[in-house]
Amino acid sequence: MEISRKQALILGSAALLVLVAVGGALYLVLSGGKELKYKTQAALREALPVTAAAELHQRGVRLTAPLKCADQPGWSKEDIRVSCTGTTSDKKPVKVFGSGEKKTNHAYYTILVDGRPVVQNASCLGADCRSKEANGRG
């Protein structure tokens, strides 16, 4: 049986398409399909006071004012790092730390109230956690 040039091109294209699809699926399985919610230092710095305040509110902790956030020393485009400070309504100090690693697509959040961890190495805070649960990635 002889294959025409047209049939060979169609067969080759189909094989290439299957190879790309299998490669993409394999990548998603190996990477876990995870992606950083906040991909830049500025995005994390802007979101962290809101998500951390929501997380604290869910846990019954009230703040006297919005959290103030700043870049942590040593941050880079690949390893973003932000910290926030504030005070609870009963005058306890609050410290929030957020980080994201683009190489691993992992995010970590820790919240300390009066030096004690309220949240430790969580992958999300506040409404970000609910949106992950809704997408089946909680």
Helix/strand-derived category reads: alpha+beta
Q: Choose one word for the global shape.
A: elongated
Radius of gyration from the alpha-carbon trace, in angstroms = 22 Å
How many strand segments?
5
Instruction: List the total number of helices.
Output: 3
Q: What proportion of the residues is helical, as a percent range?
A: 25-40%
Largest sheet: 5 strands, antiparallel
Structure description:
The protein is of the alpha+beta class. The chain is 38% helix and 27% strand. It contains three helices and five strands. It has helices at 5-31, 41-58, 127-134; strands at 68-71, 79-87, 93-101, 106-113, 116-122. It has a five-stranded antiparallel sheet with strand order 1-2-3-4-5, with helices on one face. The longest helix is centred in the first third of the chain and has 27 residues, at 5-31. The radius of gyration is 22 Å and the shape is elongated. It starts with a helix and ends with a helix.
Q: Could you give a short description of this structure?
A:
The protein is an alpha+beta fold and 138 residues long.
Quickly list its features.
5 strands, 138 residues, disordered C terminus, 38% helix, 3 helices, five-stranded antiparallel β-sheet, alpha+beta
Secondary structure layout:
Layout: H1 5-31, H2 41-58, E1 68-71, E2 79-87, E3 93-101, E4 106-113, E5 116-122, H3 127-134
Antiparallel strand pairs: 1-2, 2-3, 3-4, 4-5
